[in-house]
What we know:
The chain is of the alpha/beta class and 514 residues long. The protein folds into two domains: 2-167, Ribosomal Protein S5, domain 2 (2-Layer Sandwich); 195-513, Rossmann fold, CATH 3.40.50. Helices cover 39% and strands 16% of the residues. It has 22 helices and 18 strands. A five-stranded parallel β-sheet has the order 11-14-17-10-18. Strand 15 and strand 16 (338-342) form a beta hairpin. It starts with a strand and ends with a helix.
Amino acid sequence: xxxxxxxxxxxxxxxxxxxxxxxxxxxxxxxxxxxxxxxxxxxxxxxxxxxxxxxxxxxxxxxxxxxxxxxxxxxxxxxxxxxxxxxxxxxxxxxxxxxxxxxxxxxxxxxxxxxxxxxxxxxxxxxxxxxxxxxxxxxxxxxxxxxxxxxxxxxxxxxxxxxxxxxxxxxxxxxxxxxxxxxxxxxxxxxxxxxxxxxxxxxxxxxxxxxxxxxxxxxxxxxxxxxxxxxxxxxxxxxxxxxxxxxxxxxxxxxxxxxxxxxxxxxxxxxxxxxxxxxxxxxxxxxxxxxxxxxxxxxxxxxxxxxxxxxxxxxxxxxxxxxxxxxxxxxxxxxxxxxxxxxxxxxxxxxxxxxxxxxxxxxxxxxxxxxxxxxxxxxxxxxxxxxxxxxxxxxxxxxxxxxxxxxxxxxxxxxxxxxxxxxxxxxxxxxxxxxxxxxxxxxxxxxxxxxxxxxxxxxxxxxxxxxxxxxxxxxxxxxxxxxxxxxxxxxxxxxxxxxxxxxxxxxxxxxxxx
Length: 514
């Protein structure tokens, strides 16, 4: 007998419907799976056989052929266990054929018939909705994530036996659709980290505020112990909450990566803060591999990517950042596939000015030779620095500042100003398809970052003095626009430009002095 069940397969962060055709016929006992299955799919036959028997059903002693369509696309993972098992039972007449094609089935089976969670449920439900099916059967532990899509009926199943009873109309399962995505009252609060814990460092905190308000990239250069990492970790506390579109896009990436299952979460309510170690592999950073999975660059989408001790990262990893910082996505091309992952994040970097760390320190002698300093700084290429909008010198905090009783500004206060600036940008770009000033194209820069006579003269002098590139010129204008937004000004004035310029001068001075 021939039976057909439908499931969903992942390709990158997108999904497509897969037909699971099961033919049980006379012949020597065997179990063959065709249609470009990977190792995990091929190994499912032993899990499926045990699950069917341990669920109280008879496993056929005939030849079984499973075809996964479309046959030219590779099928990966363990999510086909449940549809294949149901297809076998349907071919044996145990499961009714009346409604079997009205649902999509996804889930991994344990040997006792339990339906276990799988990665990538959210993009799967998006694909399911587009097929026009009545609903989707998912593992119970994936139900909360699947129910984010309000336009799809989601039925959580605990085990294979319960699935069969539901499809035969012998048991009713409550529909889990209609999950509220954005709920301020139930949204998880930000980490306890707060800028009120950071003593002094007012210029650095000001730069962080500008970076958060305009989505700008930032690099901090300073000696060890100056608070670079401490300051970077707290930028999440001043970023505005994600919109519904951002929340869904972020959740989709983390769903495919499997990090939602590991963390026991159903949805990403906080902006991601990714801080990979400098020993990370190239594939782990950019994404890809034999199975196209998102890397750290994409996992930071709509959040922050922080690289501490920047020169310690391999050169190929640092240069891989150049394209995502420009295009807000990363393209991974292989012989068999090409995948584009979103990579719209704020890039924050921290580094010492030399191997010993004290080249710019006023209270500590540097032990490095000029050759060592230049070699260390040259690990960061000029094109990469040009793509970073704000360059900050982070000095060591004095003892007097450390013991000061002065109350520092809290993150909630800074976030209020950031949200106000973001609201101005939302109005400005309501038809532009972007969110922040940092995303502006050349045409938008000319339209929204116009410089009158005095600011233009100041900009011309800076270009000549610091030998800035055309890319740096555009980025200074973007930063000046953000500074004006934080001030509530409609036009960019001279003091906005002068502040933006000072955030570009450090890299030129430091690299030329070395």
